[in-house]
From TrEMBL, chains A, B, C, D:
Region (Disordered): 182-202
GFO/IDH/MocA-like oxidoreductase domain segment(s): 148-280
Family matches, as InterPro entries: Gfo/Idh/MocA-like_OxRdtase_N (IPR000683), Gfo/Idh/MocA_oxidoreduct (IPR051317), GFO_IDH_MocA-like_dom (IPR055170), NAD(P)-bd_dom_sf (IPR036291)
Domain Gfo/Idh/MocA-like oxidoreductase N-terminal: 13-137
Name of the molecule in the record: Oxidoreductase
Gene Ontology terms, MF aspect: nucleotide binding
Membrane-spanning segments: none
Residues in the signal sequence: none
Biased composition (Basic and acidic residues): 182-195
Lineage: Bacteria, Pseudomonadati, Pseudomonadota, Alphaproteobacteria, Hyphomicrobiales
């Protein structure tokens, strides 16, 4: 990473739970983990059956294949060269179980979002984590984008003044039709309350939008009012969420999460306005941050380019004009985790500039989903967060 | 206009109420009225005092200057060569009075939006209009954009299927600071409940967004929940509105109107999604309509270009790639009005393809503002429309 | 226009040569002439035969129809209320003849581009114009765009430093196939050397690009090397031009004009780079000018918005965010002409800030076409301008 | 990679020449090599002195550090577990030497572009390569972008018809001022004829543009005419190149390479037009390909999205809407190389769908630079390619 001198350390040892053949997010985690050479994947319990797990591990060239996560947690904890960290990339209902087992054994956890399928699981996990001698990192990966770091730094520095408005949306179209009935494994579990939890679009992408809005704005949400919809007949979970937000200090916002808006792929977009200026960013064009100081022309700050500060530069790898993307942003979460883990090894706190989403963010996301569902049941009445 | 053969008719005679020196919208109406050669401005009561009115009329080369609108209504009604129509471009509280006087005398009215400052005035005006032998045209000018006509035709033809989502926003920044205390006449009356009515951003631009969403979608709104804010201290009317919408038939929407979002000038943006596709349009780049049939690449339809139909072509003047803008869209309202007025002269109904916003739209806009205020007072509870 | 107080003058009287039924540019001139209320079209010789001319005039409601331009020049010159100016909107080979007849009689000429079909005609016209007591205005209309005025002012003020690079292109697709054989009148005369002159794309749109580059940069072209192509079989004139440019003082440039580039409508785009910054503008999105001071983020200056100066504001009519387009830019040429004509009436020079393309620009354009053809015949060898 | 099942192979062993501390492109190669887990970096001669080389290797955790490339070639060739391939990431004048030494010993070479500093070196290298039992891969990395593969496939399939126009540009601004005198190592060697060769912008980025145009169009260039400039005083090599291109079969093109255009970072942009349609792509927004079938609206094809074919999908890793960037495109070159190397191991030809730039591309690039320089010396006369 630019600015930082490479260090002569060996890669950290990583295990993975979930992410076998056909899984989308497992492959992403694997690339993210190795992109900066910080992690080496050496152990896995990748599928729901021992056979599939072993086959997947072999296919991926992973040294140590386990039948299941418990065997892996126990096995690795016993080894001298056991894994430093585990990536949990299963459907939501399978987050808490493994996370607890690894945390209990002092193995750091890098877990996909949302935190869990249910609030009960989330609380249980939180309790274990609070006493564990291991880190918990939640891959709200969009916080890893350099221009998101830039935006956060600018807000914190007061460059857009006192915040008034937070407009965030995450818009997709892949569930416009009943993909869950047409053989899409991704669609199946993501629309299944047993595996996903109480939120559909809310949980799957709404939590990302919510997390990003909070991460960049630094604001504390106070209450929300949500109008959740199920547009595709037969679906059990919301595929569209319209949410009003109120923040401490008086800022207000809107959050829109949809999986039924044709023409949108991963339209995560954040717009923040204060009394001195505005910031706008879109995930599909992530190397730019638009800054409009009130009364001046809007300017385009480019990643690592003129106007971008050290917070963006530190998590950039290449010069401006050469686009970095989703995988690089995701890898930044892993790189931050690596820095924290290495510090932890030495009994030190993570370096001050290390930033990653934590269990607290995960709980906030769970509360967001829960509140959306509550509000929607009460006809979009306000629910305190 | 393309497709239509020019006709050898003389321009219609137009009068104007309001629009004297310093007014923004008066000049817009004048250009819109003459752009297609359909109207000639021959009479005016342009300002609040007889002296200013006459001076403004003289400066603009208007033949017949009146002291006030009543004198003008009476005077013109008496003349053989009296005006065919009057443009009312005063602040909101001064719409109903003149509109009623002209309508009563059979003079067509082209009135700026919102309809009036109060619902009481609106009802009174509606009553008069219902029995008058004259047309009432409300300049929700954005409905005049060719690609808005295109979008409307595509929705009506079922090209995006059954509608699910209506996302509309109108975002500005000019009231980010207290311009009304810094000498801006525009800001003064627009933030003054006496002159604007109960809505701030809601009335000034929210009504445009609301009207446009309904115009294009063809949907009937059922209820709304609104969270209105006043961010600039000392202001009496909302400068930001967050609104949830529900439509008959199950579609849902969000409407955002803001005058305090730095970096936004006239960010009116409409996005519609159905079960077969999506449409997206932005006023600041109005010559394009984005159409995403579900499962296909999104395509850019250009005004008068490939893929654009007769509804757009009829209100276009020049080839694609040569941008038309706000004034042309505004002029289309006048051109439609002219067609209707000419038909009325012959005792005929307006041609079937003539489209313009009417008193019903104005009442709907008033109800929108009223409902927003009611809802916001009830902590964003739902209000039936 | 913003900033300027409206004056109580009557419209100037305008005649038109050409522009009958089916002509594209005639309708544009008529709208441009009346948009600001500066001209009233009162006389015309609109078509190639007396019958058609009269029919067109009647259809357009033009008071005085003439059989041909000579009759009109003579007739109007005799009248006390004769036309102040004439718009010549015929194909290129019919520019010089009428222009000379009107100029000779002291009637101002507003002529479409390119100046003429042949250099001989151009010289003849120039000779007459040099002694005529009348103005000659060439409608290189793109110079009327506010952000082009803004760019020109910024270059002149040194804001991008010493100029190094001028990249200009005007790209269309409408002649990708042999439209001239498929009944398109526009295509017929524009691909016909008898009516268009020696240049195809070069003359029709290359001259616009060339003029715009010179207008904004203020540079004097020194030499060019051109590679002209005819891609559509059977066509007599170039439909694509690749041109290298050298300017006095050392700046260099590229000009690309094409009518066979599918997906492009009127892609006129200008990019200028100096040792202190860059400017970029595109006609299809004309309300923005991109300014990149070297080493700083690029910024978007909007018409009439923050960062735009008086040169843009003077020729703008409405607030930023409300797009103006092609017709407004074209109308600015007419508005400038009106100011110059009114000054001429009083025996005064045009106001200092009046800017419009003149006969000198027309001659430069003719020389550009001639040089392109010469260069291309010599295998893209350099030709001094 | 999507569509392909992961295989249980161990990573290939990679060495690196150059790429020590402070080098930009070395870090890029390292990430690209490991991104898909296809290569493991195990040996290096990373700097110009033995001391620096060893320090860099240690800092990067590279197992086997060598004093220089010759020692490395010899040493690795002797080892049973010697490297499979070497990445050469030195300045241009240091490409041929190491490439020859490794090729001679049957070690595959992955070399940065341009091929060499001089044509003589290039020929020498080509001679060695032609008889070596090892592959030579040139990292014209932009050919690795999925949407470039998509464009190439569409052209090959005739989707835009017979090609007429190839417009390509690569525009930067980082040499607008004399960075080479201000301490930039990158600028120093890139503006130094001893280390870069005869081309400045021409060699550094012009070769990329030229290669990309040929790669996608499939056309064979026939001749060029180049106008090279040095705008920054004291510079020895061109910092701007204006080039006209002619291709076999009659297509023509323009190529613009500049390092002095403020506001441009890595503006590599390719536009191709045939008699049936057009394609447009920009490196700074690489996940989209614009396709305009003549007479239809232009459409935006997204990487891995609707309308994208297997050629793009095969080199994509993640779903559409999640942007991939420069590093992923670069990694695709490495992944293709890995597939070819693995096939070579088995004595098989590379799979048919494997595509990477070769020595022939390198020679073509060298000839491009040479021809540009020749042409420019002859005042932009045509030079046959």
């Amino acid at each position: 990473m630019s600015g930082g001198s490479p260090t002569p350390h060996a890669p950290l040892r990583l295990g993975m739970v979930g992410g076998g053949a056909g899984a989308f997010i497992g492959a992403v985690h694997r690339i993210a983990a190795r992109l900066d050479g910080e992690f080496q994947l050496v152990a896995g319990a990748l599928s729901s059956t021992p056979e599939k797990s072993r086959a997947s591990a072999e296919a991926l060239g992973i040294a140590r294949a386990y039948d299941d996560y418990l065997a892996m947690a126990k096995g690795e904890a016993r080894r001298k060269d056991g894994i430093d960290a585990v990536a949990i990339v299963t459907p939501n209902h399978m987050h808490a179980g493994p996370a607890i087992e690894f945390l209990k054994r002092g193995i750091h956890v890098i877990c996909d979002k949302p935190l869990t399928a249910t609030m009960a699981e989330a609380r249980k996990l939180a309790k274990v984590a609070s006493t564990a001698d291991a880190l918990f990192v939640l891959t709200h990966n969009y916080t890893g984008y350099p221009m998101i770091r830039q935006a956060r730094a600018m807000v914190a520095a007061g460059e857009i003044g006192r915040l008034r408005l937070v407009q965030v949306e995450y818009v997709q179209d892949w569930l416009t039709e009943a993909a869950e009935k047409a053989g899409s494994k991704q669609a199946e579990w993501r629309t299944d309350p047993e595996r996903s939890g109480a939120g559909g679009a809310t949980g799957d992408i709404g939590t990302h939008a919510y997390n990003l809005a909070c991460f960049v704005s630094g604001l504390t949400p106070e209450a929300l009012a949500a109008d959740l919809s199920i547009f595709v007949p037969g679906r059990a979970l919301d595929d569209n969420a319209h949410v009003l937000l109120r923040f401490e200090g008086g800022a207000r916002g809107m959050l829109w999460a949809s999986q039924v808006a044709p023409g949108n792929e991963n339209g995560l977009r954040l717009r923040l306005y204060g009394d001195k200026g505005g910031l706008e960013w879109a995930q599909e064009d992530p190397n730019y941050l638009w800054h409009a100081p009130f009364g001046e022309p809007r300017r385009r700050i480019t990643r690592n380019g003129a106007g971008a500060g050290p917070e963006a530069g530190r998590v950039s790898r290449i010069p401006p004009g050469h686009p970095e993307g989703y995988l690089e942003g995701f890898a930044n979460i892993y790189a931050e985790a690596a820095r924290a883990i290495r510090a932890h090894r030495k009994g030190e706190p993570a370096p001050e500039d290390v930033v990653f989403p934590t269990l607290a963010d995960g709980l906030a996301g769970m509360r967001f989903v829960e509140a959306c569902v509550q509000s929607s049941r009460r006809n979009a009445g306000w629910v305190t967060l």
